Amino acid sequence: METVIKVEKLSKSYADGFEALKEIDLEINRGEIFALLGPNGAGKTTLISIICGIVNPTSGLVLANNFDVVKDYRAARSILGLVPQELSTDAFESVWRAVSFSRGLFGKPRNDAHIEKTLRSLSLWDKRDSRIMELSGGMKRRVLIAKALAHEPKILFLDEPTAGVDVELRRDMWQLVRELRQDGVTIILTTHYIEEAEEMADRIGIISKGQLILVEDKNKLMQKLGKKQLKLSLKNKLNQLPEALTDYPLTISADKLDLLYTFDAQSDDNGIANLLKQLSQHDIEIGDLNTSQSSLEEIFVQLLKDSA
Amino acid sequence: MNYHGIKAIYFFEMNRTWRTIMQSIASPVLSTSLYFIVFGTAIGSRMVEIDGISYGAFIIPGLVMMTLLTQSVSNASFGIYFPKFSGTIYELLSAPVSYVEILLGYVGAAATKSVLVGVLILITARFFVEYQIEHPFWMVSFLLLTSVTFCLFGFIIGIWADGFEKLQLIPLMFITPLAFLGGSFYSINMLPPIWQTITLFNPVVYLISGFRWSFYGVSDVNVEISLAMTVLFLVICLFVVRWIFKTGYRLKM
Ligand SMILES: Nc1ncnc2c1ncn2[C@@H]1O[C@H](COP(=O)(O)OP(=O)(O)OP(=O)(O)O)[C@@H](O)[C@H]1O
Ligand SMILES: [Mg+2]
Questions:
Q1: Distance in angstroms (rounded) separating the CA atoms of residues A74 and A161
Q2: ipTM for the complex shown
Q3: If pLDDT is split at 50, 70 and 90, which confidence band does A192 have?
Q4: A191: CA distance to ligand 2 center in Å?
């Protein structure tokens, strides 16, 4: 796997002395979707802003495509695209002009076909001559995405792209992100919607109080930290567990028709075979069974609790 | 060099000019023309000649210079202040453009606008007052040099300002008074000796004097000094801008 972004011992103290990032180390792989999760004020925007050149780092190093983002800013920045968290737009400009401007600013020659394709893919084509101030918030968000894509970046940063966006647009956006990934674009996004990270990301980083407390493959993370639950639907009500089964982590549901068994998803012997054997020995008949895994949200909350 | 970047900024800014043409071009031309009507034709005929030049003609270079200065500063400062204010500056900061390219785009566009205003004022003045231009080359040189220098100065003000009040403070509190007292309406030789000396600390005196010389061949101070002072101010502004972009002063946290 090839590293496209390398962050080394990156720290940031703002003018008021506040330490927003503390010695962050992070590597992003080419072509992946990386989700950065963390509570408000954790330092997500600060991290992205330093990589993109909007905020000066206090110490440490950031390489984009092996170019130092400070010393080789020209080479580094020309492959980066940024959709900021704030909806900052040129209110009086038309959509077309604003997006074309972005392409030129990043050093690319005019290419109307590309701008058109970008606007169409974001359902902005009909609005191309509208002034940005006349657009709704969700539309403005799309304009910002179009501006970030105007110069065909290889690495795209999306800082909370779906904040304040309706379900439909959110779905459109994820579709677009998938398409971009297929075209080989590396995507780094921050979000507060954990389901989003769960659904989209290849890897997940969790940041809290300026420190990366975890970076892990999403599937591994869920496996590693996730508890699985086996739900056994019983044919007859069960009032009390037989003596022999009291050692198992079992609970009976309120309606006494379900038996819940919690086990570690990663352990080799989950004890299910034995449990089922025991149950049939005690004539407990099972009508149906299914397993569920704890969501990323639960993992996330747990982690933050642990690190606090 | 990121030529596409320079071009993008330049035309983006020029587009803003055309969009606000009444405010950015028509209004300064019109308000300056009022001076010609009042001083050139109405009162001017009752005024004595200065250095052998009719009063109406005498004030033209000074008035053009005064408008050029205020327009350059307010144009250029607004051009860079607004993205800072609206937040769209993030894009400029994240783009692969050097500070020289950013300057060429913003200051280039603002200076173009100033020169345009200056030329339009001169054309308008023609309708009210007779004047000649003895040294056209130097006239154009002063026009360009002053526009660029004061746009650069305005650019710095725009980055420094953290509110609209400060943005307007400099043109209103410094540029306009300095231009008024810099010999727009009189020759500094008409002042008492002590005031003549004090006036020499006003940088605008050199600009107006040099500019007037390119019209009528007469000047209050040496033309070479005028030029040297303007270029010096330009260089100082350049160094300040370089420092701003190196440190990210008021641009980057
Ligand atoms: N310009 C600044 N000056 C001082 N402190 C700042 C500045 N910008 C951000 N901070 C502080 O740095 C910390 C990290 O902010 P940042 O915007 O990176 O958080 P975030 O993870 O993006 O949060 P959110 O989810 O709310 O967007 C916060 O505590 C914030 O108050
Ligand atoms: Mg943020």
A1: 25
A2: 0.90
A3: confident
A4: 9
Q: Which residues neighbour B235 within 8 Å (Cβ) at sequence distance 6 or greater?
A: none
Report the pLDDT value the prediction gives residue B226, as an integer from 0 to 100: 86
**Would the CB of A38 count as within 6 Å of ligand 1?**
yes
Flag whether pLDDT at A295 surpasses 70: no
Fold equal for A3-222 and A227-293:
no
The pLDDT score that the predictor gives to residue B68 is 93
pLDDT reading at B229 higher than 80 = yes
In the predicted model, is pLDDT for residue B81 greater than 70?
A: yes
Do A163 and A192 contact (CB within 8 A), yes or no? yes
Find the closest chain B residue to A76 by CA distance.
B96
The CATH architecture to which A227-293 belongs is: 2-Layer Sandwich (3.30)
Query: Mutate which of B88, B97, B245, B246 to disrupt the A interface (most A C-beta within 10 Å)?
Result: B88
Residue B252 falls within a domain, yes or no?
no
Confidence of residue A224 (pLDDT cuts 50, 70, 90): low
CATH of domain A3-222: 3.40.50.300
Instruction: Please enumerate residues of B whose Cβ is less than 8 A from a Cβ of A.
Output: 2, 4-5, 7-9, 12, 15-16, 19, 86-88, 90-98, 248, 252-253
Q: How confident is the model at residue A266 (pLDDT cuts 50, 70, 90)?
A: low
Interatomic CA distance for residues A181 and A204, integer angstroms = 16
**Tokens standing for residue B116:** 């345009």
pLDDT of residue A61 exceeding 90: yes
Do residues A190 and A197 lie in contact, with contact meaning Cβ atoms separated by under 8 Å?
Answer: no
On whether residue B227 sits in a domain, the answer given is yes
| Residues B7, A104: C-beta atoms closer than 8 Å | yes
Tell me the C-alpha distance between A265 and A224, whole Å: 7
